[in-house]
Each structure stands twice: as C-alpha cells, then as structure tokens.
Design a protein that fits this description.
The structure is a homodimer. Chain A is mainly alpha-helical. Helices cover about 60% and strands about 5% of the residues of chain A. Chains A and B meet through helix 18, helix 19, helix 21, strand 4 and helix 22 of A and helix 18, helix 19, helix 21, strand 4 and helix 22 of B.
Amino acid sequence: MSSPSHAIVNRAKRLVFGRPKRTDQQHQERLGVGSALAVFSADGLSSVAYATEEILYVLVLAGAAASVYSLPVGLAIVGLVLVVATSYSQTIRAYPAGGGSYIVSRENLGTVAGLTAGAALLIDYILTVSVSTAAGIAALVSAVPALRGHEVILSLAAIWFIALVNLRGVRESGLVFAVPTYGFIISTLALIGAGLFKVLAGTWHPIVPPSFGFGFGSPAFHQLTGGVTLFLLLRAFSSGCTALTGLEAVSNGVQAFRPPEAKNAIRTMNLERTLLYTMFAGITLLAFGFGALPSESETVMSQIARDVFGRNVLYYIIQATTAMILLLAANTAYADFPRLASFMARDGFLPRRFVNRGDTLVLNYGVYLLAGLASALVVVFRGSTHLLIPLYAVGVFTAFTLSQTGMVIHWVRDARRTGQPLRRHWWSLTINALGAFLSGTVLIIIGITKFTHGAWIVLILVPLLVAYSLHVRGYYVRFKRRVESLLGEHLAIDDARRVKVVLTIGGLSPVIDHSMRVARRISDDITAVYVAVEPELGEKLRGKWDLKRHGGVPLVVLPSPFRDVVGPLREYVEGLRAANPGLLINLLVPVVVTNEPFDQYLHNGTAEMLLRELRYSEGILVTVIPFYVNMDARAASAITTASPVQSKG
Amino acid sequence: MSSPSHAIVNRAKRLVFGRPKRTDQQHQERLGVGSALAVFSADGLSSVAYATEEILYVLVLAGAAASVYSLPVGLAIVGLVLVVATSYSQTIRAYPAGGGSYIVSRENLGTVAGLTAGAALLIDYILTVSVSTAAGIAALVSAVPALRGHEVILSLAAIWFIALVNLRGVRESGLVFAVPTYGFIISTLALIGAGLFKVLAGTWHPIVPPSFGFGFGSPAFHQLTGGVTLFLLLRAFSSGCTALTGLEAVSNGVQAFRPPEAKNAIRTMNLERTLLYTMFAGITLLAFGFGALPSESETVMSQIARDVFGRNVLYYIIQATTAMILLLAANTAYADFPRLASFMARDGFLPRRFVNRGDTLVLNYGVYLLAGLASALVVVFRGSTHLLIPLYAVGVFTAFTLSQTGMVIHWVRDARRTGQPLRRHWWSLTINALGAFLSGTVLIIIGITKFTHGAWIVLILVPLLVAYSLHVRGYYVRFKRRVESLLGEHLAIDDARRVKVVLTIGGLSPVIDHSMRVARRISDDITAVYVAVEPELGEKLRGKWDLKRHGGVPLVVLPSPFRDVVGPLREYVEGLRAANPGLLINLLVPVVVTNEPFDQYLHNGTAEMLLRELRYSEGILVTVIPFYVNMDARAASAITTASPVQSKG
C-alpha cells in the first residue's frame, strides 16, 4: 500500500527523476539538420565501432590470413547501406508524419506483418541496449585494462544508469547528443585520415604482406585461407550487417524536424548514410591494413587507434568518444521502445497500461521492462557482443524487409488511388523494391548462417509476441462488443433506497467513533461488524457497545472459528444481499495513517487483507476511511482527520 | 490487485494448502507421554546424528589420532545434558502453562533479557531448519552417493517441501511424528547395541590401537596428538554442544499434555534426557571404536552403520530414519518460529500482522519468512552443517542461560511472595543455578572459540533484533498514547450535510451510466470528473455530455499538461476542500471486473494508479465501484453488476 505522505514521496521522486514536463513542451524544439544528425544517428553510426570486428571474428575461424576477405565483405555491406538508406529516404517522403516499420507494415501489408515488424523491433530495442552497452564497456576496458573481468557488472551499471536518466526524462537534444556523436564522427574520421596517411607512407603491416604473393588467386594465399567457405563468408557478411542497425531512426522522427520536415529529414538521412559507409569502409580498411584481429582483451577499434596514434591522448579520445556514442545509442532505445509499445498499446495490441505515461512524460513501464530484459541478456550472454549479435541482426532485417516491402505496396496503391501512372514513382518503387529484396536476402542469409548461434531464439520469440498481441487485441475487441451490448440495457434499480453501510470495526475506540460519523453521512442504514478472531475480544466489545452513544447503530459480532477475517465478512454480506434484493452494500474499511511513513507497515494488517480480498467483489462497494494521526507530540491535536473540520488550528 | 474470481483462487488454495482448521480443534487432542515424546523430542534427539561428527571435525585438525579426545569431550557434554535437562524440568514445574525462554526471561529478568532470548530463539529456529535439513540431506547422500554434489538443491527442495506441508497445516501428532522419531530411536539403539557387541568381540579398530601404548600420558601418544591445545578442546566441546539443541521443546508445550500436564511433561523430559545422553554417548564411543572420521562424502553415522552392519538393509534403515528425524526436526521449527513471533507481536514487539493467522490456523507470514531465510543460509553456507553449527550454538545457549537465570530469580521471588522459606525450593534453585552457570560458561566458550567461525554474526544480529523490537514497541506505545488523547475530543462535524461525491470518469459509456446510478444512491451532490490526458478526448466527452441524460450531474474536464492523472485530481479535490470547509469528499473509482481472471491485468491501469496514490489521502474517502462484465457470449446479459438487481436472468 502506498504511504500517505505523498508529499515526501513526491519530493524524493522529483529529486531522483526530475521535474515533470508538459505535453506541449514535447514539440517545442524542432531540430535542424545539424542537431537532428546528433539526435538520430547515434544509434546508426555507433555500430561502426563493432561491425568490422564482428566480420573479422567470423573470418579468423579460417585462420588469421582469411581476414583479407573482410575487404570484399565490407564492400558488399557498403553497397547494402547505400540501398537501404536510400530506400528509407523514400519512406520519409511518403510518411512525413513518421513512418516506423510497425506503421508502414501494418498499413500496407496488414496486421500480422505490422505486428511482426513491431515484435522484431521491440526485441531489437532490447538488444540495442545490451549490445551497445556491452560494446561501450568493451571500448572502456580496452583503454583501461585494469577493469578487465568486470565487464558484466560495468554493463549492468551502465544499463541502469541510463534507465535512471530516462526515468528523470531527458530532453532529446542539445549538448547531450552533440558531444558524443560529433566527437565520435570527428575523432573517427581523424583516425581514418591519419591511418590512410600511414598506409600511403608505407608503414602498414597487413596479415598477408604484399611480398607474400598477395592476390586472391595465388596458391600460397589459398594454402593460408583454405578454410574459407562460402558459408563462412556469408556468416561474416551476416555479422557485418549489424553496421545497418539504427539506420531507420530518422524515418521514425520526421515530425521532430524543422519545416520543411521531410526535406530536412532526407538531408539528414543522406548525411548519415555517407558518414556511415565512409567510416565503416575506413575502419574495415585500416583493420586489414594494420593487421588488427579480434581479441578477448582489446577491441579492433582500439588496436587500430593504438597503432595509428600510439597510446597517447588521441587514442584515449577515440576510446572515450566510442564508449560515449555507444552508451548514447543504448539510450535512444529507451525512447524508442516505450514509444513503440505505446503505439501498439493504443491500437489494442499490448495491455493498455503501456499507454499510461508517468508524470515525467516518460513511459515508465517500458523503461523498467527494457532495462530488466537488457540486463538479463547481458548476464546470460556474459556481456559479449559476439554472442548477442546473431540475435540482434535477425530482428533488424525482419523490420527492414517488411517496412520496405510495405513501401512497394504503398506506391502501387498510391498510384491507383490518385489515378497517376505508376512510373511517376518509378525511382522510389525501384529503390524500395531493391531494398526489400536485398534486406530479405540478408534476412534469409542471417537466418541460415546464424540459426544455431542464437538466431533461433528470435525466430521463436517474434511469432510468440505476435500471437500474444493478437490475443490481447482479440480480448479487447470481445470486451468492447460485450460492453456495447449493454448501452441500451437499463438495470432495474430501486433508486428510492440508499446504500446499506457495513462498517468494519477494529479495536481502537477513537477510530470507531470517527468512522461512525463518516458512515452516518453516507447512509442512515448502518451496521457495525466485528469479526471475532479472538472470541474474548468480541464478547468484550459487545459488552461495551452502547447503542445510545453510537447513535442507534447495531453491532454484529461474527464468529470466526477458522480465525479468518475475510470469510465470515463475505458470508455476512452475501447473506444480506440474498435476504434483501435491491440492496447496494457499501463496506467501510477504516485505515490508520500517520505522519511517520516508515512505520506505516506497523498498522492496517487486517484492513489491507480486507481491501485485497474484497474490493473487487460482486455487489460490494468498498470504501477506505483514512484516520489520520499526527504522531508529533507537540501537535495540538493528534488527528488531522479525514473529516470536514480540522481540529488542528 | 486481487483477482475477482476468489472462488477459483480459494479452490486452488484448498487444493494446495488443505482445509482450514477451527480454533477449537487446536486443543482437541492432548498427548500422553508416548506420543509427546514423538512430537517434542524429534528436534532434541535428532542432533545425535551430527553432534559427534562436529566434535571430531574440530579434533582432527590436530591429526587423526586426536580423535581419542572425543571421549572426554563427549563425557563433558553428557554431564551438561543431564544438568540442563533436569533444569528444564524445574521450569515445567514452575510454568505449567508453558514456559518458553522468551516468557521466563521476560517475566523474571525484564524486557531486554526476554527480547534477547526471543531474538536468539528466532535466529535459532531459522538455523534449526538449515542445519537439520543439511544434516538430513547429508544422511541421504551418504546412502545414495549418486546424489553427491546436489546437496544445496536437495536441501532447498526439502525446506520448501516442509514449508508447503506447514502452509497446509499439520496436525502435530500421530504417525507423522511417531514413525521417524521411534524409528530413529530404535534403529540407533540397535546400532549401538550391535556395535558394542562387536567391540566386546574384539573386532573394533580405533585410530590409536591399544597395542600402540594407549594412554593419554604416553610419549608416543603425545607425538601423534601434539597439536591438541586447550583451545582446540574447547572448540570441539563447543561444536558438540549442538547435541543439546531442541532440549527446551517440552517446556514450551506443557499445555499439550494430558492431565496432570506438568507431571507427564516432566516424565517425557526425563525420558528424552536419558535417550539423548545414551544415544550420544553410544555414537561417540562407536565413532572412536570404529575409527570413523569426518569426510566430505559420508557422515560419521553412516560410516559407523556401514562398519557395524555392512551395506545391507539395516544400514539403509539407519540412514532413512536419520534423514527422516532430521527433516522432522526442521519441521518443528516451522511451528515454533511463527508461534514465538506471534507471542512477541502480541506483546507489541514485532509488527502486529505477525499475529494474523491465515485461514489454515497457520501463521503464514512466519512460514514464508522462515523458509526464505533458511534457504538463504543454506545457499550462503553451501549446505554445510560444519559452517552453520557455530552460528547455531550461540543462540541456543543464550536462550538456555537467560531462561535458567530467570528460573533462579523466579524461585527467589516465589519464596518471597508466598512467605515460604527459600530452602523449600533448594533443589530447583540449585539445579537451575547450576544449569544457568554451566550454560553461561558454555556460551562464553562458544562465543570465544567460535567467534571468527561465524558466531560474530549472531552476536551482531541478536542486539539488532532486540533494538528493532524495542523500536516497534516504542512506536505502538506512542501511537496508543496519541490516539487515547483523542477519546474525549469531539470533532465539529456538520452532520446535516452529506458527502460530496467526485466520480472519476474513464471512457466507456455503460460504465459511466452504471457508476452514476451508484453515485446517486450515495449522495445528491455529485460531480463527474475527467482528467484529460488526451486533450481531444476531453473535448469529445464534454461535447457528448448530456446534462439531462446524466440527471443534472455536471462534468468537469481537468486539463493535464503533464499527462498525469493523479496530480490534477488531487489538486481539484484539495481546491474543493479549501473552498468548502466542512465538506467530506468521496472519490468514486469504477473498476472493470470480468469472469476471465487471467486477462484482468488488461483493465484498470488508471484505476489502480488512482487507488494506489489517493486512497490514503487526507480528507478523501475512496470508494471502488466494481463493474462486472460476463465475457461469456452465451450469457443473457454481459453485466452481472454491483447494483442490486441482477439482470442475469
């Protein structure tokens, strides 16, 4: 039960969670391209920090020399980035009000497709938190080796720190986003620039040196990389596809842009696309050039930075901005997850309470759920990005595929609806179709090559979530239909009679007196009831009961041979209802409330039991009567009371 | 919130927890000496199964040959058993109504001593569960080596199985107690008999053979046992003192005996005493005679039984009865702990809800707490009796010492009160004083020798529990004083005015109509209030509101710029109170209840929030109006309603 001292509790809440925000503050600040890039691309760009490493992690299974294959694999991913990002620009054009995969899929492909995209995304947001946090902590541990071995604890601390920040309510703008995002972009570009300069200067040292007869066709090379199969290459490609995660963020948030919204959003998208493939290609090239290989103790990015800069201040800046943008990426999921859940809840596909916003404009339910599940994943997968990535990619590409397929349908329908020839949309249609085809192909590749590595978990979870959403929706529909059938129905009520009050009596006389006064104002038909768990106390109370003093209210002492309070009371009330059809019973339950919240649990054990068991009972209204006691001995009167005239002053 | 389908829930509860028992059933069966021995001595006698092993466990630190010292140490403990048991017989004589250590100490030595004994016992009951279960599982694993390595899981399973049995409510009598207790007594005595026969037949093989120049003074012996210090001997003695645990049980339950209660209880006590020291001495002798030494994989008792009987059916009977009596000993703590907690709660030293009994005559709170804490101990101490014993013995001997010191004071006071000469009680006085002195000495020895082995935990916990009890008591005293000061006070209430009803409105029209009819029966002064978290919905509702249809009840739409439901409502109500002194406000909160309990959580998110936040608010009565919907499409009407006339048909 909640403490009565909501003032204290609220003050504590403010302190921890910050001041609440007005609904209209939400849209006060519109973003230009510059700040929008900071806000929306953190998730998308941060994947550069681990995508290359994930490719190498698979390739080196066939020997260190196989790392050379990261170059063609990386190139394929750059092409994929280009197509998918351009495809999302078409979504922005078509859905200037914001076109998340859930909305686009549901509108164009139907409920199940929409729910599949929604479920895949919800799972993805959880994985974004886990993967980004784990990768951020890996960047930190690479720079500060003393922290090694504590990755799981550090990740959990980061997850709950971010959750706390989100419960306080963050303003999605300003320095909070700009510093890590631009810091990461600038420092990574500087790293790539300096690295390429070193390459040109000839100080690189790839695993397979040119002098070795470098060339994919050379026999020596084949000897070294004999274990490379097509399957392994596809697996490496699947892993690298995590570079695309978060790419859809801009298309979700078009309304946050300054007008012209769509135009600015597309500009931002183009900028993000260019930065993403440049940085990814650069890091992949340098990883090969400096012979960086995945290791338990240091990230590939850290190895490159160490090789290019040495262990100086520039190295630490790289590591710091990398860790920061990754934690920021985790943070964006805290906004995305509850928003998507509330969209789905508003459509009736998730419990309605997901729509409720707390008083800090934050969907608290979602934040707790997200942090809890992400923490569980980090613990189960021991804070390893390698183990989490296979789960991650499946959801992302499911949403990509559905959303872009939906866009293809959208253009066809749009042409049909407006009567315009389809070729007016030929470019959008082509690029969306290409995006859908490529995403779908990648999804199948991931599903097959990563199936045994954890993808199966997501392939089971998504249908389960979809089935659950359909169940929820079905329930609400049935409920609404049942309730609507009542609209015309008029229940025969004997309006002349008032309610019959049943006042439950505890032990303390002042509480009885007070409750009795309150009861008299609700009804003239009152019965006081005492459940005699201790038979002697019941007899004593009956002996002391003074009809005159209690204004003619009779006392009923109910025997309780089983020492049960609820049962006899329920039986008594049901007996009353059976004997008097047309009787509306109001059960009054006095509770003691003091100004010492920490000792509140020392009161009301029985009252709480009654409320828990009886308040949803058919035919009974249950009313709580608070009896306030000021425990401060200096107070003029001990009760500040729920009754009208306070006797304080 | 509880489900409305209490019928279903109750049926499930019956199934799991059994039928409730009447209060008067409690004392229906009185016990004779034979069944009382079974009921009360399980805890006391079961310690024979591990006490010898605990002595050896310490001694072998000085080498296997040091195990010979188990004989003098064992002898000292036999003497202690004799004195303490006889001392408790005096308690039975003086407190025929039941003289637990808490009661005897509190009456004779004052509150703090009583609470110290109470706290020590509460901690002990927890340890009884942990130690007895761990020892029982050790007996099981000794017989079935395939279970080795799973001790912790098995112990946890046993603890929660016993908890479940206790939540069902056990009848403390009959076969349940007789089979394990008498089985253990008979099989152990048979083991000792057969063992002694083998000794006489000369087939024993002590670690230090007689031919070796056996004798405590011989130089060879000294070479072998050079590490034996006085401190080690005292530590071994401390460990062995666990043989005395549970010895006080009879004195707590005198009222359960057949008349003459005290006499029968003393007879039972004498019988238990004799059995205890005979069995303990026998096992200790055999352990030495057959060179049994503590081992990770097999208990000392199991080694002896294997040596005496071989691995045949008799061996398995010994192991089975040992495991059974140990689990039964754990079971008795489930009755003792909640009973003591309810005694202390009734005196105001623990939260009053500990007095509440569930409907199965069982103090549910206590059972859950006990099982939870015992499980935690088993996990933390990896199910090892050796690690738990040091904690165990401190509490037992604290209670012994206080209780017997209290008895000394009791006799002195009794003589003074009745005017009889003190020497009339000379025997009781002497034996209690000796018991108190010896127990106190043992307590000091345990405190010193076991301090670093875990005794410090109990030495910290007991004072903390005492301080907590005093705080609780202080709070209740202060509260009672504050409330009593109100007895004469009459609050000025404007009794002519009825309550002002504030009806909170959600979305569904039938619910509104129904709540409005209910509201009209509580008061003529009604205002409907809608908190417009979604401004558009507020406008829509205002537009649709039909004063005539709603019987002249005005609608107030409260703006909620922070998307908060509670805050605006609280402000509105406080504004009403400020503007109308003398106003009693009744906040009506409709909730939806359906006959599908598993989907209940899909409703009432907002209503639950209001109830949680507002029901203890000063100046507001909060009333829950259930709105029943029958989701069964075949039902004649969808609502079975909280209103008087059911339209079910």
